[in-house]
Amino acid sequence: MIESEPAPAPCVLKVGGQELRPGPALEQLVSLANGLRASGRPTVLVHGGGEEVTDRAEALGLQSTRQRGQRVTSLPMLEVVLEVLGGRINSRLVAALGRGGAPAAGLSGVSERMLLVTPAGTPPGSLGYVGEPRRVNPTPLRRCWADGVLPVVAPIGVDRAGQLYNVNADRAAAALAGALGAELWLVTDVPAVRDGTGAPVASLSPRSARALVASGAARDGMIPKLEAAAAALRSGSPRAWIGALADVGAGGPVRDRGTWFFSDARAAAATPLLRVRVGDREG
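User: That's the sequence. What structure does it adopt?
Assistant: Structure tokens below.
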């Protein structure tokens, strides 16, 4: 009896920045989506779009402020988030994927209460209308997979009363990955997490990631990425990865590229980090 190949593990792929704008990076994303589809890997695409939110907010005379890498979101800023993330970017990605032969469906965390949230921040609510995912309904995503469609999710959540919230895209992707038991791939504009000497780090544990944040070594947009990777592992994701889009293929991230996150036991030998270089902004 010939044993069949095991089905590829599902993945949640989070993108932002240049991958969202027309150009070579978006074309590369479409090509990757087609490769993942051909390989039979169930995939969810979660997008950010912080730079475009900032540009639109500035055009409207709204100032953007951040705490620990997350955008403080007033009601007027929330309207900008809904317009840019829930409308412009989500529709652009779905259209580009469709043109490239990858059938896609635009969703948000509001769809069937996919992302049920509570106010984020310390104390809760200090970030305004920013939500922290507390419960995930993966049914719309599994339905898309059954129909052969790639779900494209805007990071917008809803609370029990029906209030909408801005959700950091890394945290949204982590919550979905955990609920689906999927690998989490966080694409960023740096090729890997780096140590104090600038050398790339192959693996991290949640414990060492927390130490980076607590020490102040991790800054800006890297904080929610590290926290998201750790949260994904706690909630059911087998592993998480941070790296560049160029290092992701239909078989997954390229060997020895980027930074993998495993349980503490798997990453016990990871080199302690003193400092991490960051250059990305999100949400």
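DSSP finds seven helices and 16 strands in the chain.
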